[in-house]
Amino acid sequence: MSPMPATEILRAPLLPPRPLRAPRPRGGPGTGVLARRSAAPALALSLLLLGCGASDPPPEVRVTGCPRCAGVARVGALPEGDIDECSGVVASGLHPDALYVHNDHGDDPRFFAIGLGGALRAEVDVAGAAAIDWEDIARGPCRTGGGSCLFLADIGDNDSERDSYAVYSVQEPDALDGAPRASTAEVFVISYPDGSHDAETLLVHPTTGALTVVTKVNKGISEVYELPALPAAGAPATLVRAGSIQPPTGSARFTGGDVHPDGAGVLLRTSSHVFYYPMTPDQTVAQALAGSPCMLPSADEEQAEAIAWMPGGWDYVMIGEGKEEPIHRVSCQAP
User: Fold this and answer.
1) Are 89 and 306 in contact (CB under 8 A)?
2) Are 123 and 180 in contact (CB under 8 A)?
3) Residue from 144, 193, 152 nearest 169 by CA
4) What's the distance, Cα to Cα, between the start and end of the chain in Å?
5) Which residue pairs from 46-53 have beta carbons closer than 8 angstroms and sit at least 24 positions apart in sequence?
6) For residue 304, what are the CA distances in angstroms to 103, 126, 190, 319?
7) 60 phi and psi angles, rounded to 5 deg
8) Which of 62, 184, 248, 297 is the Cys-Cys partner for 12 at CB 3.0 to 4.6 Å?
C-alpha cells in the first residue's frame, strides 16, 4: 500500500460543549427582574464549568509534519509458551531485528528477547526485582557507566491502591544465543505527588535519560509526570507533574508508548489509535506531549497494548495482549 499523505488525515470531529444560556425574558409587568433572577444560577454554573476546564476541547489532529506511512503489515507472531500476556515492547539497540517483551501482572520478574518474526532468542530473569504489575518497557542510557539499558515499569494499579511503584533498570544483554540469562536490576522506587495512579506508559528520553509516565484513565484527561534525573539506586523519588494529555479522538486509555531513538518524536498508543507527537532537540518529552499529534496507522488488535520504534528509521511495531499475538509493523518515511 502506498504511503498515506498527511493531508488525508482528518481533524477529529469533536466539539466543545456549548455554555449554558440564561433564559430570554418575556414581555409583561415584572418579568425582567424574574428573568434575571432565573438566569443567575445558570450563568454561575456556566462560569464554574468554564473555570474547571469542562469546555476545553481535545487537541486537533495535525496534518503537517507527520511521518508518511504505509499500511499495517503482519510480520510475525509471538512464540508458543510463556509469553501469554504481552504488555510492553521495545526494540534492541544492539541486536538487529530483536525485540524485548514482557508479560503483564502474574508473571515472574523476567523479560524475553524475540526476533522480529517472533522466534524466541532469550529469556532473562531479573534479580532484585518484583513483578507486581509490569506494564511497559523502554530503552535509554544507563544511569552510570554509559551503555544501553532497559527500563521495566512496574506502574500498573487498576484499583489505585498502591503507595509506591518501581522502575527496574538492567543492562541490555550483550548476546542473544537462546540460552537462559540473568541480570541484576537497579531499583528506582517512585511515587506520585498526589496519590495513586494507574499507568501503562513509560517513556525514556534517549539522551538525558529522564523518565516520563503517562497515566491511564477510562475517560477524560490523563496526567503526565516526569523524573528529570534518576536518583541513586534504591533511593525513593517523587515524580513531578508536568502536564496533562487527552487523545484527539477514540479511546482515552493510553496503553503504551516509545520515544524515537533520535529524540525526534514520541509514539503513544491508546486502545483504539496510534498518535505521533513531534519533538525538538530542546524539548522534554512532556513538552512534546503538550502539542497536537499526528494520527498514524493502528493495528486491529483485540487488546491494543504495546508499541515501539524500530531503530535506524521511522518504522514501528505493535503487539496486542494475548497468546501468540501477531506482530504488526508499519513502514514510514521521515516527516
Assistant:
1) yes
2) yes
3) 152
4) 18
5) 46/19, 46/20, 46/21, 49/17, 49/19, 49/20, 50/19
6) 14, 26, 26, 7
7) -80, 155
8) 248
CA atoms within 13 A on the CB side of 59: 19
- 277: Cα within 13 Å, side-chain hemisphere: 24
CB 103 within 8 A of CB 83: yes
**Torsion-angle region of 160 (φ positive above 0: left; ψ -120 to 50: alpha; else: beta):** left
Which letter does DSSP use for residue 97 in this model? T
Residue with cell 430570554: 24
Our measurement of the distance from residue 241's CA atom to the centroid of its chain's CA atoms, rounded to an integer in Å, reads: 16
pLDDT tens string, the chain, 335 residues long: the values are 444 443 333 333 333 333 333 333 333 333 333 333 333 444 443 433 334 444 478 899 999 999 999 999 999 999 999 999 999 999 999 999 999 999 999 899 999 999 999 999 999 999 999 999 999 999 999 998 789 999 999 999 999 999 999 999 999 999 999 889 999 999 999 999 999 999 999 999 999 999 999 999 999 999 999 999 999 888 899 999 999 999 999 999 999 999 999 999 999 999 999 999 999 999 999 999 999 999 999 999 999 999 999 999 999 999 999 999 999 999 999 99
List the beta bridge partners of residue 254: 270
Q: Locate cell 491502591: which residue?
A: 161
**CA distances for 130 relative to 154, 164, 295, angstroms:** 8, 13, 36
In three-state form (DSSP H/G/I as H, E/B as E, the rest C), the secondary structure along 104-120 is CCCCCCEEEEEECCCCE
- Rounded to an integer, what distance in angstroms lies between the CA atom of residue 232 and that of residue 243? 25
305: left (phi over 0), alpha (psi -120 to 50) or beta: alpha
Helices (H) and strands (E) in the chain, counts: 2, 22
Q: What is the pTM of this model?
A: 0.84
Going by C-alpha positions, the residue among 176, 74, 79, 177 that lies closest to residue 119 is 79
